[in-house]
Specification:
The chain has helices spanning 14-30, 51-54, 63-75, 164-172, 186-204, 254-263; strands at residues 2-7, 35-37, 78-80, 84-87, 94-101, 107-112, 118-120, 125-127, 140-144, 150-155, 177-179, 207-210, 214-216, 222-224, 228-230, 236-239, 246-251. The protein is an alpha+beta fold and 272 residues long.
Length: 272
């Protein structure tokens, strides 16, 4: 199955971001991608964190959700909508939500980011909990590829990557592919992005698809990029080395994964 991890440098303008995303999805579809995954915050990187409140949507209704459904249907792909802000339990916060759309344009899965990023090195300060309400449940979905093969896909977002217990839960639920749409900062990404992605792949003998924001944004934030696809043995199958928007393509080979899990049945050896 051909997959695409989309890299963006999302701006403060929602319509511009949607137009960029549509062009990249269409490009990936023309190149044969069946599964296309957008990065975290693909629809908006506001000047302030609170800007998310201004574009939040009700579950099941809104311009971003309409865009994702229409794009999946018209491009004929499984489309994972990075994250978008959905209404939370109060008026001061949103859920940072991944939605998955089938090639028919139906929303088939939802995941609300569980772990909320906080970082302060004296120069950069981030605290997602100020405007985001954490999710509570892991999520997977079933993807039927064009060759008739069924893939179990596990969902996660960005900072979740630092919590291996989430990915073990996903693997225990049968996940063969792990998605990590992200907006890693340049500082933390340079230090930890690749090693964490490869670790999650190796631990769970799973494919990892990690689209990312990558570049300097209008709000002054610089993101690490390096969108990539990792094989179940931990090798980087594809990576976008430069900043800027683009699509990273790779082919998921089920035989390679089956061989790795047969040769090293670590998932069967779990004790805790």
């Amino acid at each position: 199955m051909q997959v695409a991890a989309i890299q963006m440098v999302s701006s403060t303008e929602l319509d511009d971001n949607l137009a960029t995303a549509r062009g990249l999805v269409d490009q990936a579809a023309r190149q044969g991608a069946e599964l296309v995954v957008l990065p975290e915050y693909f629809c908006l990187m506001g000047r302030r964190d609170a800007d998310k409140l201004g574009v939040r949507e009700e579950p099941g209704s809104g311009p971003v959700q309409d865009f994702l459904a229409r794009t999946a249907r018209e491009a004929g792909v499984w489309l994972v909508g990075g994250t978008l802000p959905l209404r939370a339990g109060d008026e001061q916060r949103v859920r940072n939500t991944t939605l998955v759309y089938s090639p028919n344009g139906d929303c088939v899965a939802r995941y609300d980011k569980i772990h909320l990023f906080r970082f302060d090195n004296g120069r950069e300060r981030y605290d997602e909990s100020q405007v985001i309400e954490a999710g509570v449940e892991p999520a997977t979905f079933e993807l039927a590829s064009r060759d008739g093969r069924s893939w179990r896909i596990g969902l996660s977002v960005c900072y979740d990557l630092r919590f291996p217990e989430l990915y073990r839960r996903l693997a225990a639920a049968g996940a063969e592919v792990l998605l990590v749409p992200s907006a890693f900062t340049h500082t933390t990404g340079q230090a930890h992005w690749e090693v964490l992605l490869r670790a999650r792949a190796i631990e769970n003998l799973a494919w990892v698809i990690a689209p990312a924001q990558g570049g300097l944004h209008a709000n002054g934030r610089r993101t690490w990029g390096h969108s990539m696809v990792i094989e179940p043995w931990g090798r980087v199958a594809a990576c976008r080395e430069e900043d800027g928007a683009g699509a990273v393509m790779a082919t998921l080979d089920e035989s390679r994964q089956a061989e790795a899990r047969r040769q090293l049945p670590a998932l069967e050896h779990r004790v805790l």
